[in-house]
Design a protein that fits this description.
Layout lengths: L1 H32 L1 H28 L3 E2 L10 E2 L11 E11 L2 E2 L5 E2 L2 E10 L5 E11 L6 E3 L3 E2 L5 E6 L6 E4 L2 E3 L3 E12 L2 E12 L7 E3 L2
Parallel strand pairs: 3-15
Antiparallel strand pairs: 1-2, 3-6, 4-5, 6-10, 7-8, 7-9, 7-13, 11-12, 13-14
Length: 221
């Protein structure tokens, strides 16, 4: 009885294998017969998708770096490594988004008069006696190179106010499914302190996103 069952099982497996082989041959025959049409459809589908992915990746990565120079020269360095305002080595940066004024069109059709206002101070670490703490602020968007460099200024433990001109229209959608609501505030932080009788100068870079924040005051256009 077991022998008969084994024979039947083997016969069934051979039939299944033969059916699978016939299906594969039929599929290969169909692909070969329609290879030109398949190639055209793959070209029409795969190429646009590849170009779209390349555009998204290129746009995203290209706009993750920031220049802190108002005039870009051969000596300008593009910075792409940032910390949060609480991760600085010798101090904590305190930032408040104080005001926003959207730009408006002038008689020549240019966007003018827009700015972002901030209050900034720092809290020194107890282990450091800091001197000459200064910042250079930059507003810059992800996905698209909308950028404005502010003036370098010294800051203190008391709040200092400053504004950065930003004459771009937001929100904007540079790519499908991508909307830029607000820029990021990037800050170059420079300071000095004494260590073993030597003056040490540090430079660190902070990224402060504005996308989930609101200004205290919105100034009408």
């Amino acid at each position: 009885m077991c022998i008969i069952e084994n024979v039947d099982m083997k016969r069934g497996m051979r039939q299944m294998n033969k059916q699978n082989q016939n299906k594969q041959k039929t599929l290969l025959s169909w692909i070969h017969k329609n290879r030109v049409k398949i190639g055209i459809w793959l070209f029409l589908i795969v190429l646009p998708i590849s170009l779209l992915i390349t555009a998204y990746i290129g746009s995203y990565t290209a706009n993750k770096s920031v220049y802190f120079d108002k005039e870009i020269t051969e000596e300008s360095v593009k910075i792409n490594d940032f910390v949060t305002k609480d991760e600085l080595k010798a101090l904590t940066l305190n930032i408040e988004w104080n005001s926003l004024k959207k730009p408006s069109l002038n008689d020549e059709g240019d966007l003018v008069g827009g700015f972002y206002g901030f209050n900034v101070s720092y809290t020194p670490d107890a282990n450091y006696q800091l001197e000459n703490v200064k910042i250079t602020p930059v507003l810059k968007t992800d996905w698209k190179n909308l950028s404005s460099v502010g003036n370098q200024r010294y800051i203190a433990i008391n709040m200092t106010s400053f504004v950065i001109d930003f004459n771009y229209e937001l929100p904007t959608s540079p790519l499908l499914f991508v909307t830029i609501e607000e820029p990021n505030l990037y800050v170059k932080v420079e300071y000095s302190y004494e260590s073993a009788g030597q003056t040490v100068t540090e430079i660190e870079y902070v990224k402060f996103p504005l996308s989930d924040l609101n200004p205290k005051t919105v100034i009408p256009e």
